[in-house]
Amino acid sequence: ADLFDGIVMAEQRFHGEGYQEGYAEGSHAGMAEGRRYGALHGARIGSEIGCYLGFALTWHCLLQKSTDEKNSKKIRALDSLIGMIQKFPYEDPTYDKLQEDLEKIRGKFKQVCSMLNIQSDFRIGTERSSLTF
């Protein structure tokens, strides 16, 4: 009877073993794909935020030399943008408000560009990111 049980139950046994092997291989492939996606997405966000910070610091330096009242409003807006960027949690991928804070930074950047009378267009391409005026 044991000989026939092995034959009859072979399909179920092979199904279970195949499932376990497939699950382990899929988990491994999913982790590798997730790491690649996370690194790429993180690099894009870092590039975008770095561009905003460089832009803000440059304009802050240019406007500091002037004592015009209009420039003081622009400087305050730039200070606000710089502060938001400096508080951004780069090292915490589990931060639950990451997208929300990123949208606030993007909004503030657009506001600053409007105040400076600059058309902004931030694109992330496959080769490089660019800010065009």
Automatic annotation (TrEMBL):
Residues forming the Essential protein Yae1 N-terminal domain are 18-56
InterPro entries assigned to the protein according to its UniProt record, in alphabetical order:
Essential_protein_Yae1_N (IPR019191), LTO1_adapter (IPR052436)
Top-level taxonomic group = Eukaryota
Q: Tell me where the signal peptide lies.
A: none
Record-stated family: Belongs to the LTO1 family.
Q: What is this protein called?
A: ORAV1 protein
Q: Which organism is it from?
A: Rhagologus leucostigma
